[in-house]
Structures are given as C-alpha cells and as structure tokens.
Design brief:
This protein is α/β, with parallel strands linked by helices. It is built from 16 helices and 7 strands. A 7-stranded mixed beta sheet has the order 3-2-1-4-5-7-6, sandwiched between helices. Bound molecules: S-adenosylmethionine (SAM). S-adenosylmethionine binds next to helix 5 and strand 2.
C-alpha cells in the first residue's frame, strides 16, 4: 500500500453519519460507535463483555498461545500472512522493536487500507510495518520484493526470509458481519463471498454455472456435507442472488431434517462455497509447500485453522517437513483456546493452533 493511498484516506471528505430508526442502531453500517472502538471504547467494551464482536472489528484468537510459540524477538523479520484487523500483528510488532519489521499480507483490498491506517495511527511507521495486498500463496515474492528493495545501508539482512510467520486462516469478523460481502446467512446480502471482490467469480455465479455432480463433490470435499447428494440437484445451475435465498433453498431441500440439523447444513454449504470461491485449499497447499524456503534458519511458524480440511493439510505438511529435515520440531498435538476464551469469544471455539520450527541451515 503506497503512502499516496494513505494520504487519500486521511483527506477523505467528511461523511454524515447514517440515520437509524429507534434508540439503538441495528444494521451493521449504522453501528458507528462499534466501528470506531478507539473513540467509543465504552461501547466496544460492552459488546465484548456480552460475548460479541463490535461491528467492523475483529477479536484476535489465542494471542498469548501464538506469541509463546512464535517468540518474536527485537530485530526479527515477521510475516503476518493474514493481517485482517491487525490484532495479532499489533502484538507481534511491539515485540519486534527495536530493529524488527513486520510484513502484513491480506487478499482483501477493502479492509487492508483500513488496517494499515489503524496500525500507522498506533505508531508503526513504514520502517517497521508494511501492508501488502497479496494472497499468501505469493509470500515468496512478497519477501523477495521486500529484500530487493533494501539498500545495503538499510542495515537489514538482505536476501533472506522471515524469522516469524503467522497464518490465521479463514475470514475476519469484518468480512463475516458486513452484509454487502455476502459471507453469512445471518445477514441478507448479495451472495458474493469473495475476499477480493475484484477477482474471480462470486458464489452466486459459481452456483449458476455448476453441474450437480461437481457440486456434490465440492460440498463433500470442502465441508464433509452428509446431505450433498440431496442438495446438489436443488442448488446447481440455479440463480441465488442473495444469502437468504440460498439459505432458504438449502432448508427447503432438506424437509425431513430438524431445524438445527438443517441450519448446520446451511453453514456447511456456505463454508464449502466460500472455500471454492476463494480457492482456499490450493492457496493453503502452496503456502505450506513454500514455508521452509520462506523461513530463516531457526524460524518459527504458527497456523490457526478453523475446520478439519485446513487442519489436516497443516498437520500433514508439518509432519512431512519434519521427516524431510526442514523442521526440527513441530506441534505433536493441536493447541485449543481456553474455556475462558471460548466463553468470552465464541468465534474462537473451532480454532486449532499448530506450529513448526525451521531447522538450522
Ligand atoms: C481470521 S482473519 C485474520 C485476523 C487477524 N489475525 C487479526 O488479528 O485481525 C483472516 C484474514 O485472512 C485473509 N485471507 C484469507 N485467505 C487469504 C489468502 N489466501 N491470502 C491472503 N489473505 C487471506 C482474509 O481476507 C482475512 O482478512
């Protein structure tokens, strides 16, 4: 992200707050106090105390556990491959000073400039933090460009990788809760689901084109959906302009299921489509394959996953990296959030953390 973009942000014309009916705003875009927790800390604290996430923000998961396994040190080079709201990045950045640097990657061109501005406002200047609109499958190129851009006098080690790498997979709460992004059945919006809406096809376009056998395979592979064979003929080749229309069609195709079971199928269909639309498994496979080459000698990597399809891939890649001698040690068991964290932030409940240590080269 260039400094020019930054100044455009800060000189944006003042916009009037949207008006809402009643005492409290209900719609995502009207919750202006939640969107600005730095200014309305009391409102944000109340929402968090109720176990929710303030609109337009994201609560970082397993921060203490991640900091423990990554052990960021002053002078380290870190890559946060899923910058999101910058919650993890902020904590890592504090521990890299003096002399360290964090490269923050995210595929989302809508949230990235906001996060860059937030981290700058916290005092992290261009010498310590840079934001990169990139898929994490492109981490080797982001690192190579960074090191190529350094002058010898910059004092950073040239032509090497990162000491610390983090990937916190999936979508952020900003993406999930914004109806216009179309990620959640809880909020009516266009059925989009693209992390980068400027690229690829929306979930609605994918469903309109796909054949039933391919959709059955997609629902099984991406979300272990047990009703895939029943759902595919009802959904494939059909037009679903909105999240609600798709949710209703899934429930209508499963009339024998109890409401709670049908709701689980709706969630799995949304998950499977999101993974397909964003090509998430192939990005993760490429990232895991590139990891050893992106890590400095004795570097540390942590990956936070949210469903079995992701965790299986991370586990296998770390185990085969250990056998090949790329890693000296890996997590033998997954690390889970504490019951207190799950109570305080139910969105942390499916999280699984794995780590690996790069061997000395
Ligand atoms: C769970 S959020 C990360 C939250 C972040 N750790 C924080 O503390 O705010 C996941 C983020 O990763 C991004 N993302 C997901 N897949 C990606 C990929 N393949 N490449 C780059 N960014 C990706 C999403 O756009 C989203 O912003």
């Amino acid at each position: 992200m260039s400094d020019e973009n930054m100044s455009n942000l800060s000189s944006a014309p003042h916009q009037r707050r949207p008006r809402y009916r009643g005492k409290n705003p209900r719609r995502f875009e009207d919750k202006y106090k939640e969107h600005d927790p730095a200014r309305y800390a009391e409102t944000a604290a109340k929402v968090i105390a109720s176990g929710k996430t303030p609109a337009g923000t994201h609560r970082p998961i397993m921060v203490a556990e991640i900091l423990e396994v990554l052990a960021p040190q002053p002078g380290d080079i870190a890559a946060d491959c899923t910058l999101g709201y910058g919650g993890h990045a902020q904590e890592i950045l504090r521990r890299l000073q003096p002399g360290g640097r964090l490269l923050g990657l995210d595929a989302d061109p809508i949230e990235l400039p906001k996060t860059e501005a937030r981290l700058r406002a916290l005092g992290f200047g261009p010498e310590t933090f840079s934001a990169h609109r990139s898929n994490f499958a492109g981490l080797p190129q982001v690192l190579a460009n960074h090191f190529c851009s350094l002058a010898p006098s910059d004092g950073e080690r040239a032509g090497v990788g990162a000491d610390v790498i983090l990937a916190d997979l999936g979508v952020s709460s900003m993406q999930l809760d914004e109806p216009a992004r179309g990620f959640s059945v809880k909020h009516e919006g266009p059925l989009d689901m693209r992390m980068n809406p400027q690229r690829g096809q929306s979930a609605s376009a994918l469903l309109a084109k796909i054949e039933p056998p391919a959709l059955t395979a997609l629902l099984e592979e991406n979300a272990d959906e047990p009703n895939a064979a029943l759902l595919a003929p009802a959904l494939a080749g059909k037009q679903f302009p909105t999240t609600t229309a798709l949710g209703n069609a899934v429930r209508a195709a499963l009339p024998r299921l109890k409401k709670e079971e049908a709701d689980l199928s709706v969630r799995r269909v949304f998950q499977a489509l999101r993974i397909a639309v964003n090509d998430e498994f192939s990005a993760l496979d490429t990232f895991l394959r590139n990891l050893p080459a992106c890590l400095n000698s004795r570097g540390r990597v942590a990956v936070l996953t949210f469903h079995s399809g992701e965790d299986r891939r991370v586990k296998k890649a770390f185990e085969s990296g250990l056998r090949a001698g790329n890693y000296t040690d890996i997590a033998r068991e997954v690390i889970r959030p504490t019951p207190e964290e799950v109570r305080s932030n139910p969105r942390s409940s499916p999280a699984k953390l794995r780590w690996a240590h790069r061997s000395e080269s």
